[in-house]
Sequence to fold (361 residues):
Amino acid sequence: MRKYEEVLERIRARPSTWLITGVAGFIGSNLLETLLKLGQTVVGLDNLSQDNRGNMLEVKGAVTESQWRNFRFILGDIHSLDTCRQACRSVGFILHQAALGNSQRSIENPIIANRSNVTGLLNMLVAAHGAGVRSFVYASTSSIYGDHAQTAVIESEIGHPQSPFALTKYVDELYADMFARCYGFASVGLRYFSVFGPRQDPNGPEGPVIPAWVVGMIRGEPTFINGDGKTVRDFCYVDDVVQANLLAATTDDAAAVGQIYNVAMSKATSLNELFQTIRALLEPRYPRLSQLRPSYREFRNGDVQLPVGNIDKAKRLLGYEPAWDLRRGLERTIEWLGAKLARRPAIDGPLPMLRPALGKS
Fold:
């Protein structure tokens, strides 16, 4: 963690302006909170299509008043090139998180998936390059590995994507590489594995298993597992995803730019093991859960056997070092979900809006 601690100190000592797309989302709002606490100016772009304004208001309650004044929000869509250009003005760093991030939804509507993920990224690349942005980091996905059979996957070897979502993210990586080759505008892609943590909506479009199971167990609902439960996931706590973004955005190593990195814990956890761990953490408060057993059902169309991520490249070139294990991350997530279920958020108030970005596409 020494490298990351050094980077945090360097960011704190050099205030800059950052743009976060998808700022109201799960990962985007965690990035927002971290950067505001580091004394940075942040521009956030989001169309609020997921009705997640509350995530930003929660950030407002977690930072000081003076830190919150350094945030400006643009209600707009990456589908619009004019909007992207407006958002990129006077920005030094971009963390591009906005996407349609769900395999099932992309199967149901591949056109929207392509528009959000491919056209959206292309608009951002064009706008960022035109604005002379210093650093561009974008979110990719482990779903790109598709049917690749290796146990611990490395970035240079992928399989066949199994959903439009995975395919669009692969196209994003190809576009980013092309911009480096044709225009000299290099970026960094981060292949997220199974990210979890506070502000992940249990009913969200990405179908997150951890918050859905936690909330379901608390409410006494059945816990469903697709398949036999032996399917493994490489769960990665959101703070480590924040770490990877900031390391990638601020790297001064030319060899580290223009690369793709796995962002993972690099540990396999089966769904059966995950169920047992969550149940064990909740059981002291909900003794009835000692009798709970999962209900198994068929895999859904687009479900893939996700591999474990080899993170040697991120360690070597970025200094990435996961700081959270699964159990500690689950404890923090359960604490947040329990508080959210117990009461409505008390935080309210207007967002610090910039002029609404409603330009032509």
In short: The first strand starts at residue 17 and ends at 21. Residues 355-361 have pLDDT under 50 and may be disordered. The chain is about 45% helix and 15% strand.
